[in-house]
Amino acid sequence: MKISKNTALIPIDMQQAFDAAPWPKRWNDKVDDNGLALLAFWREKGLPIIHVRHDSVEDGSTLSPGQSGNRFRPGFEPRPGELLVTKSVNAAFIGTDLDLRLRRGGIDTIVLFGISTDMCVSTSVRVGANTGYKVILVEDACDCFDLADGDGGTISARDIHKAHVATLRAEFATVVSTADILL
Fold first, then answer.
1. CATH class of residue range 7-182
2. What pTM was estimated for this model as a whole?
3. What is the mean pLDDT of the chain?
4. What is the pLDDT of residue 21?
5. DSSP percent split of the chain into helix, strand, coil, nearest 5
6. Domain boundary assignment for the chain
7. For range 103-113, the mean pLDDT
8. The 83-87 sheet, strands edge to edge
9. In this structure, is the dihedral angle defined by the CA atoms of residues 151, 57, 94 and 140, taken in order, positive or negative?
């Protein structure tokens, strides 16, 4: 896939909290490998990267600033010259200056991946598309969690991921794999 200089990579919430309680089981054991491959590709090409970190304002959250879970997963830390946007809600565009940074940088296309497909990634894809960006979702560099169905059962993380990717593909984003990007 051809990536132009007007395309920013936006890793979303690649944070350590998601590896431990109270977070449920995840499905994608390749999320880190794929995400790191995307970061390496962007860095090698000198393309813009804007990291997004969830700084929770909820009492006791493992994603609160100062908690070890708030830290980036190994290898996902911003490097010098890479921007960081912090958010306290699901969408990376709400309550942040992400849109302003993208527009000032001449960015018209955004490539997103991260945790969790059905929450912060999905809402960021939707808002990004509705704001006028061409959005590309790297589905195999995303992950999500098993979710209670409200009737005493559980919907598997893989099924939740598939459903959200399908809805995003239908209206909000071009959906690709890591290999599609790296070709």
1. alpha beta
2. 0.95
3. 95
4. 72
5. 35, 25, 40
6. 7-182
7. 98
8. 83-87, 50-54, 7-12, 109-115, 134-143, 174-176
9. negative
